[in-house]
């Protein structure tokens, strides 16, 4: 979507033509909104900090936070630079996502195809899905300790339901005509699964992945509460203990920025891989 | 020597559900489809005509009686009897060629042999310029051409057509009736077409069967000359305008109207 005026080549009054030619610069409308929103809220933040409604200790100015972000990037905080913290967090979320894919996609296909498999797993998934990961974090620690595996496991557990349930929904949404047509063209059961059901479920699998990534990323801070040496969540908690508000803000904004990039990458992937979605 | 029918139904009945809530969809259908026939099955909605086609495809088992393909009972779907649906049957993530070549991929043919095999079909249905287009970007009429070509690529004995032109506008529909007729005539295949469009049935069929409302029974059979004559080179528009053609249409209309009036009477009672 772009913002542009239609241009009539001849017979336009000069001032209209001039106006039309000025508006030829194309700025995608979503970017315009996002940019406008960012400028507006930065302004609000800066104004609040400048008049010192709250002391700078609690609300530093945007420029102070920016300066802090640069220094954390260059020289680090809590024994690691900003990139190292972000890298540790990303590694946890992405390994959890990879593990969740390996488990949840086949599980979701099974749940979509077989009522028996659905009967066994659906109640369990539906029961624990709404429980906040912070609530079962202690159990994960008791069972699996405080190492890296436990952190990844916690994020994994948060991601699995999102991917499994949307995969199952995607499998069940295959039009019966599509399956029956393939069968009358000579497809075996496995061929129907591989060539019809799986590709048909891809849009929902991608949606599940996008939701799972968001859930996993928000579980991250909880996972990094306990015995982490690195990570954005760990950085935020450490800084908060010492009332270093600007680092807390740097951490929060970094998490938001990464989540934003992941969300848009996933949406781009969805458009790229499944342009036929909703257009059948 | 007697001809073995391509498809045969003997006292074929199908009930949906079991026990007291069971619903009779088809009742004691007797029908033989000989090699090269184009059989149209015409009936009001709810006459079980789709059920009959599904039994021939092997997608629905008979409750009583028999359904045979070349003398053997039909137990499962097979590429010998490929089916074309009204919609949603193509694979939207593939382009036109890959959709048409899909049955050959299922048989394990490599890409080059698949392309060689389907190229003449694409030309015949007028899709060669659209070969690399994703199917979801095509119009409804173009998509149905892909569906027809794909079913023929499976090289079936019988084409099963489940209202393939039902969702198209009148002009596209006439175009595709012509395409369908050409494909049938040039491939010498047997075809069974389900439709509720009287003109379409009369124009395409060599044999026409009318089913009653549920449970479906055969209430009339016609042998028609029009499709063979068009296939032999006569002008479709002239054939459609003939008194014979108009008379058959009126007769079929009369049969279907009787059932529609019956349905109205039941609703009002």
Ordered list of secondary-structure elements with their pairings:
The complex is a heterodimer of chains A (280) and B (269).
Chain A: H1 14-22, H2 29-50, H3 62-75, H4 82-113, H5 115-128, H6 133-144, H7 148-172, H8 176-184, H9 189-223, H10 232-241, H11 245-273
Helix pairs in contact in A: 3-11, 4-5, 4-7, 4-9, 4-10, 6-7, 7-9, 8-9, 9-10, 9-11, 10-11
Chain B: E1 7-16, E2 23-33, E3 38-42, H1 49-57, E4 64-69, E5 72-73, E6 81-84, H2 96-100, H3 102-106, H4 111-124, H5 140-153, E7 158-162, H6 170-187, E8 190-195, H7 198-204, E9 207-211, E10 218-223, H8 226-231, H9 236-241, H10 243-268
Give short descriptive properties of this protein:
heterodimer, A: MetI-like fold, 75% helix, B: 269 residues, Rossmann fold, six-stranded mixed sheet, four-stranded antiparallel sheet
Oligomer designation: heterodimer
How would you write the strand order of the largest sheet of chain B?
A: 6-7-8-3-9-10
User: Ends of chain B: how far apart?
Assistant: 54 Å
Looking at the overall shape, the CATH architecture of the largest domain in chain B is 3-Layer(aba) Sandwich
Annotated CATH topology of the largest domain in chain B: Rossmann fold
What characterizes the major β-sheet of chain B?
6 strands, mixed
Q: Could you tell me the number of beta strands of chain A?
A: 0
- Based on the coordinates given, report the CATH architecture of chain A: Orthogonal Bundle
Question: What is the CATH C level class of the largest domain in chain B, in words?
Answer: Alpha Beta
Beta-strand share of residues of chain A: under 5%
Number of domains of chain B: 2
State the CATH superfamily name of chain A.
MetI-like
* Average pLDDT taken over every residue of chain A: 87
Count of separate DSSP helical elements of chain B: 10
- The portion of residues assigned to helices of chain A is over 70%
Write the element-wise H/E pattern of chain A from the N-terminal end onward: HHHHHHHHHHH
How does the helix and strand content of chain B classify structurally? alpha/beta
């Amino acid at each position: 979507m772009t913002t542009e005026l239609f241009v009539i080549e001849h017979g336009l009054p000069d001032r209209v033509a001039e106006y039309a030619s000025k508006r030829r610069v194309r700025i995608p409308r979503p970017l315009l909104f996002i940019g406008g929103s960012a400028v507006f809220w930065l302004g609000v933040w800066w104004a609040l900090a400048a008049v010192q409604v709250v002391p700078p200790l609690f609300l530093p100015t945007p420029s102070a936070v920016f300066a802090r972000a640069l220094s954390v990037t260059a020289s680090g905080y809590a024994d690691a630079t900003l990139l190292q913290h972000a890298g540790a967090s990303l590694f946890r979320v992405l390994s959890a996502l990879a593990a969740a894919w390996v488990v949840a996609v086949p599980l979701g296909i099974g749940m979509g195809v077989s009522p028996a498999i659905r009967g066994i797993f659906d109640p369990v998934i539906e029961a624990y899905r709404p429980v906040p990961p912070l609530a079962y974090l202690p159990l994960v620690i008791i069972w699996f300790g405080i190492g890296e595996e436990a952190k990844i496991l916690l994020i994994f557990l948060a991601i699995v339901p999102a991917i499994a349930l949307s995969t199952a929904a995607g499998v069940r949404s295959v039009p019966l005509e599509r399956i029956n047509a393939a069968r009358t063209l000579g497809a075996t059961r496995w061929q129907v699964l591989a060539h019809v059901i799986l590709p048909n479920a891809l849009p929902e699998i991608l949606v599940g992945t996008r939701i799972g990534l968001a859930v996993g990323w928000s579980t991250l801070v909880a996972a990094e509460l306990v015995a982490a040496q690195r990570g954005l969540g760990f950085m935020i908690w450490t800084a908060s203990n010492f009332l270093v508000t600007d680092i807390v803000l740097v951490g929060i904004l970094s998490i938001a920025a990464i989540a934003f990039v992941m969300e848009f990458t996933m949406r781009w992937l969805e458009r790229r891989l499944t342009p036929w979605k909703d257009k059948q | 020597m007697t001809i073995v029918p391509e498809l045969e139904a003997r006292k074929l009945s199908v009930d949906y559900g079991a026990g007291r809530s069971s619903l009779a969809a088809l009742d004691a259908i007797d029908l033989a489809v000989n090699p090269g026939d184009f059989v149209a099955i015409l009936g009001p909605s709810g006459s079980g005509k789709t059920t009959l086609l599904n039994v021939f495809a092997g997608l629905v088992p008979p409750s009583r009686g028999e359904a045979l393909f070349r003398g053997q009972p039909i137990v499962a779907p097979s590429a010998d009897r490929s089916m074309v649906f009204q919609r949603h049957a193509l694979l939207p993530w593939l382009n036109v060629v890959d959709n048409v070549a899909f049955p050959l991929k299922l048989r394990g043919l490599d890409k080059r042999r698949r392309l060689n095999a389907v190229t003449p079909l694409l030309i015949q249905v007028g899709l060669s310029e659209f070969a690399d287009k994703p199917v979801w970007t095509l119009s409804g009429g173009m998509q149905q051409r892909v569906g027809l070509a794909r079913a023929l690529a499976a090289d079936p004995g019988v084409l099963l057509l489940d209202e393939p032109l039902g969702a198209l506008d009148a002009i596209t529909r006439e175009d595709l009736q012509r395409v369908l007729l050409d494909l049938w005539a040039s491939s010498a295949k047997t075809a069974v077409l389900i439709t509720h469009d009287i003109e379409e049935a009369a124009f395409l069929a060599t044999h026409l069967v009318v089913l009653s409302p549920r449970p479906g029974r055969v209430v009339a059979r016609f042998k028609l000359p029009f499709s063979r004559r068009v296939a032999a080179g006569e002008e479709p528009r002239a054939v459609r305008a003939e008194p014979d053609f108009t008379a058959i249409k009126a007769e079929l209309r009369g049969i279907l109207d009787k059932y529609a009036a019956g349905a109205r009477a039941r609703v009002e009672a």
